[in-house]
Structures are given as C-alpha cells and as structure tokens.
Amino acid sequence: MMTNCSAVILAAGDGARMKTTIPYVMLKVLSKPMVSWVLSAVQKSGIQKIAMVVADRKNPVAQFAKTDCAIYEQTIRSGTAHAILQAEEFVKKNINDHILVLNGDMPFMDAGTIRNALLTHMQAGNDVTVISARLENPFGYGRILRNYSDSTFKGIVEERDASSQIKRIKEISAGTYWFKASVLLSAVQNLKPRPNGEYNLVDAITNIIKQGGKADTVVAANPDVVLGANDRSQLYELNRLARHREIERHIESGINIRCADGILIDPEVSIGIDTTILPGTILRGNVKIGHRCILGPNTIIEDSVIGDNVHLNNVSCCSATVKDGAFVGPFVHIRPGTQIGENAFIENNVSFLTPVVIGDDVHIPAGTVVKRDILQNDLKFSDETENREK
C-alpha cells in the first residue's frame, strides 16, 4: 500500500473518432472496458486514493468507478490540465502526496511500470517524472525533447505541434506522469490557455522546467504500456495484442493450444497445466479451470469454476460449477447457479430450465429437459427414449 501516493485517471474524452454512443473508455479490450484495465493497474500498484475525471457524473464511466474512485466532472473538455483543475479538491486534499496522472484508455499500463517510475521519481527528488517509451512508429504521440549537450529532459512536443525534425524522435510520452501534488496544483492553476482555449499538461510540465523544477523521464521496459485507442482500428489492434498476450501466457504455463482460431481468454482466467483449449473457446471473467481438461470446440465459460479432467464440448457455462471428471455436451447451456457433480455425464442437447444440482456419477441422456435437482441416477431415464423431462 502506498500511503503517500494518489492518482487521477482522466476519462472525460468523447472519442469522436470511435463513432460510439457510449464513453469511449468503456469500449472493451477482451471483455473489460479500457478504463477497467487502467483502474486495475493503479490499484495493483498499491495506490488506494484514486480520483477519476469524467464527462458526466451520470454516465457509465462514473457509474462503473464510483465505488473505487472520487468522481469529478469535466463537462467542457478544455484539455488535460483543465481536467486536473476539475479535481482540484482531490489534489488539495492530498497536497503532500506524489500524484499519478494517467489516461483512461491505456489498457496495457501495468503496476510494475507505475511503481518503477515512482521509485525513480522519489529517489531523484523530481517535481515531475514522465513515463516514456521508444517506438519504431511514434506517429500520433508527443515527442520527448532533450538537450543536445547532456540529454537532459526539457519538455514534450505534441504531434500536431512538432516540426518534421522533431517528428523523427522515437522516444515518446505515455501521457502518464508522477508529480509532487503541490507542484502539479501550482502549475495548472497558473497555466495560460493555448490559442484554441485548451489547458494542457505538457505545457504545465514545460513551465515547471522553465521555473527551475526538477523533471525527468523513465523509459518503460515494455513499450506497449503507452498504447491507447483513438479509433476502431486502434481498438482492434489493442484487442489483437491482448488476445495474443494472454494465449502466449497460458502456453508458457503448460496449456495446450494447437490452433488459436477464435480463442479468447480474459486476464483473470487461471488454467491448470495439461488442459487443452480447442478453437472457438471463450473464457470470460473470473474463470478457474483445473488440470487436464479439454475445453471446446466452440465453448463459452464465464465466471465459473471447472474442476480437473473435465470435458466441455460445445457448451455455454455461466456462473456455474463443474466438478472433476464431468463430461458435458455437445450443445448444452449450463445456467447460472448450476452445479454438476464429479464424473457426471451430460449428453448432447440436454436443457437445464432452472439452476439445478446434478449429483456425482449422474448420467443424463441426450435431449433431457432438466427441471429439478438430480442427485443420483434414475432408472426411468434408461427406459425413456424421447421427450424426457425430469
């Protein structure tokens, strides 16, 4: 836990190029809104005092974050420094803190990068520390300016303001900063607007440096932390990278994926070794999978616990428990609240009409309509050949 640290997440942008009817930071990477990834990274870094600047207290971003963050409105979007001014109360309340400022559309920002930057920031006694990255294609990002003589940091130039020479610079700003809170507050309070009426943090940082403040950068070990999304193509790319990263993580942990077509795995998912994931399988939310399972093809599992040696073939399973050795499918929907016992055998096209408990070793024949708990095998099943109901 970081007791002398706080954070402000900027999430008021309208994302006009996204062409969306919802706040664009709520658009998803895998099955999590982008802003959820950012909030998780901040919380995992140990920061507990968090504010979020949104466009409207009633919008989905505010509703999503209100239990974890102090919410502030920026009803008129006039730049990133103007957004900080909307959270002035929060900054004043934590005036002796080091304060992290970051955007709500950077799903790959991680707790390690945040902590490492803070360590450098505090050890160096900086007034502001900028997280930067080196990109082969830096288009669209603010460029880090350095003195020719000693390479000291002297500011950030945004893409739209950069000369052709500056645009060749490959070190870019992640739009993520550590400030001494008192320095941040003074800088934004005394900042003059640009000709377009905006108040931007890059200008505040320039003023801090000009006034003798100590500023530097920390280059992120993983350049992906800077990636955000301003349009649907960039959002697609974030999803592609996140999907690949999660698949690779599980392969390295001992999971069999022979063909990754259609496989989506959320970052909260845990999978036991020697489990096989077949094409078209989607693992969403808080899912725990045991060892030596076979999942798929075309199986969706959400917020569920799956035991060891389970085989789910063309199954939809939501908020349920499937115990060791069970075989289910194909074409079965396991409803929320259902529990399937050890070594149960659920054949194809079985319908669960309500949440039920299926006992250990129970065999339910194909086409059965299940309306109640079945705790042991019922011989009536063996005698019925069609329109089975139980």
What report would you give on this structure?
The chain has about 400 residues and is an alpha/beta fold. It contains nine helices and 30 strands.
Comma- or semicolon-separated keywords:
alpha/beta; 9 helices; 23% helix; seven-stranded mixed β-sheet; six-stranded parallel β-sheet; 390 residues
Q: What's a quick, concise take on this entry?
A:
By secondary structure, the protein is an alpha/beta fold. It has nine helices and 30 strands.
**Cα-atom radius of gyration:** 26 Å
Low-confidence stretches: 382-386
Total strands: the figure is 30
Structural class: alpha/beta
Taking the alpha carbons of the first and last residues, their distance comes to: 53 Å
Largest sheet: 7 strands, mixed
Order of strands in the sheet with most strands: 5-4-1-6-10-7-11
Helix content: 10-25%
What is the beta-strand fraction?
25-35%
- Tally the helices: what do you get? 9
Global geometry:
elongated
Question: Averaging pLDDT over every residue, what do you get?
Answer: 94
Task: Please write out the topology.
Elements lengths: L1 E10 L16 E2 L2 E2 H11 L2 E8 L5 H6 L4 E4 L6 H7 L1 H6 L4 E6 L7 H14 L3 E7 L8 E4 L6 E5 L13 E10 H9 L11 H10 L4 E5 L12 H21 L11 E2 L4 E2 L4 E2 L4 E3 L3 E2 L4 E2 L4 E3 L2 E2 L4 E2 L2 E4 L2 E2 L4 E2 L3 E3 L4 E2 L4 E2 L4 E2 L4 E2 L4 E2 L4 E2 L8 H5 L7
Helix pairs in contact: 6-7
